[in-house]
C-alpha cells in the first residue's frame, strides 16, 4: 500500500531514538497525540513541526489536518483557501511530489489574491526555511512541514528530516484507520463495494436490491462490473480478491 519517497536509506533511521518514537506512535490513542509525539521529536532536533496534512488525490475528498502550528494570520486564511482548492503548500506538494521550501514557492504559480496574501504571511515566518515533505501513499499523500531555524542546513541534516517524516507518516497511517481509508487505492466504487459486502453476508440479488434501493438487474450489473475490475472469474474469486486487497477495510460487516 505504501510508496515512500525514493532513495530513502531506512537503515540510517534505525537508531534508538527513532525506534522509540515509532514505538510511542504505535501506542498513541488518537491522531492529535501522535502529532504531538512527532512534534516533540522535531523539537529535540531544534526544528518545529509546522503542519501535518493527509489528503487524497481526489480534491473532492476532505483532507485530514490534525496539526497546524501556524500564526493566527495564516490560520484565518486557511478556510478561505480551502474553498478554492487549498493553500499553495498543499498544491505544491501535490504538483511536485518531492520536498520543497514554502519560502521558495513561485508567486507566479499562485496569482489569486488569497494565495498572494498567504505567501506574504509565509515570508514573515521566522524560520530559515519551512521544509515540506510529501510522502506518496496509495491514492494520496501525507505532507509534513517542518520549520528549520538553521540557515545553512547541510544535505545530510535535510535528508535526516525527510527520512524521519517518511517513518513517522508510515507509522501514523498504520496506526489510524481513518488515514489509511483516506489514501488507500481502491478499485471498487462505494456502491460496488456495498453490493459485494451484502453478497459476502449471503444476501441474494433481490435482497440486496431491496436494501440499497436499486433494481435487481442493476445489482447484477454492478456485481458483474466489480468482478471485471477485480479480474475475477466468479463471485467467490471476486470476494477473495477484494478481501485480500482491503477493498472493505473502510466498511463494517454485519
Could you characterize the architecture of this molecule?
The chain has 254 residues and is of the alpha+beta class. Helices cover 51% and strands 14% of the residues. Helix 10 packs across helix 11. The protein starts with 15 loop residues before the first helix and ends in a 10-residue tail after the last helix.
Keywords:
254 residues, alpha+beta, 5-stranded antiparallel beta sheet, 11 helices, elongated, disordered N terminus
Secondary-structure element sequence?
Answer: HHEEHHEHEEHHHHHH
Q: How much is the average pLDDT?
A: 86
Poorly predicted tracts of residues: 1-14
Q: Indicate the overall shape.
A: elongated
Radius of gyration: 21 Å
Structural class: alpha+beta
Strand order of the largest sheet: 2-1-5-4-3
Main beta sheet strand tally, sense and closure? 5 strands, antiparallel
**Helix run count:** 11
Kindly summarize this structure in a few lines:
The chain has 254 residues and is an alpha+beta fold. The protein is 51% helix and 14% strand.
Question: How is the topology of this model organized?
Answer:
Layout: H1 16-26, H2 31-44, E1 47-56, E2 64-68, H3 72-82, H4 88-96, E3 100-101, H5 113-124, E4 129-137, E5 140-148, H6 155-175, H7 177-183, H8 190-200, H9 205-212, H10 216-230, H11 235-244
Antiparallel strand pairs: 1-2, 1-5, 3-4, 4-5
Amino acid at each position: 500500500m505504501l510508496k515512500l519517497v525514493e532513495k530513502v536509506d531506512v537503515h540510517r533511521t534505525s537508531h534508538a531514538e527513532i525506534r522509540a518514537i515509532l514505538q510511542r506512535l504505535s501506542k498513541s490513542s488518537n491522531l492529535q497525540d501522535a502529532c504531538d509525539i512527532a512534534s516533540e521529536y522535531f523539537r529535540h532536533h531544534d526544528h518545529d513541526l509546522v503542519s501535518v496534512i493527509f489528503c487524497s488525490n481526489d480534491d473532492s475528498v476532505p483532507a485530514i489536518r490534525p496539526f497546524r502550528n501556524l500564526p493566527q494570520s495564516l490560520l484565518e486564511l486557511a478556510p478561505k483557501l480551502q474553498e478554492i482548492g487549498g493553500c499553495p503548500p498543499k498544491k505544491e506538494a501535490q504538483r511536485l511530489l518531492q520536498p520543497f521550501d514554502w519560502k521558495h514557492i513561485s508567486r507566479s504559480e499562485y496569482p489569486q489574491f488569497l494565495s498572494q496574501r498567504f505567501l506574504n504571511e509565509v515570508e514573515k515566518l521566522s524560520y530559515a526555511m519551512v521544509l515540506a515533505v510529501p510522502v506518496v501513499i496509495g491514492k494520496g499523500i501525507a505532507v509534513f512541514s517542518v520549520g528549520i531555524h538553521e540557515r545553512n542546513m547541510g544535505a545530510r541534516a535535510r535528508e535526516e528530516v525527510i527520512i524521519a517524516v517518511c517513518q513517522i507518516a508510515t507509522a501514523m497511517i498504520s496506526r489510524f484507520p481513518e488515514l489509511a481509508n483516506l489514501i488507500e487505492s481502491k478499485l471498487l466504487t462505494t456502491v460496488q463495494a456495498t453490493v459485494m459486502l451484502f453478497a459476502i453476508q449471503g444476501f441474494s440479488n433481490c435482497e440486496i436490491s431491496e436494501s440499497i434501493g436499486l433494481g435487481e438487474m442493476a445489482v447484477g450489473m454492478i456485481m458483474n462490473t466489480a468482478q471485471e475490475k477485480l479480474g475475477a472469474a466468479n463471485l467467490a474469486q471476486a470476494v477473495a480478491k477484494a478481501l485480500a486487497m482491503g477493498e472493505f477495510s473502510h466498511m463494517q460487516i454485519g
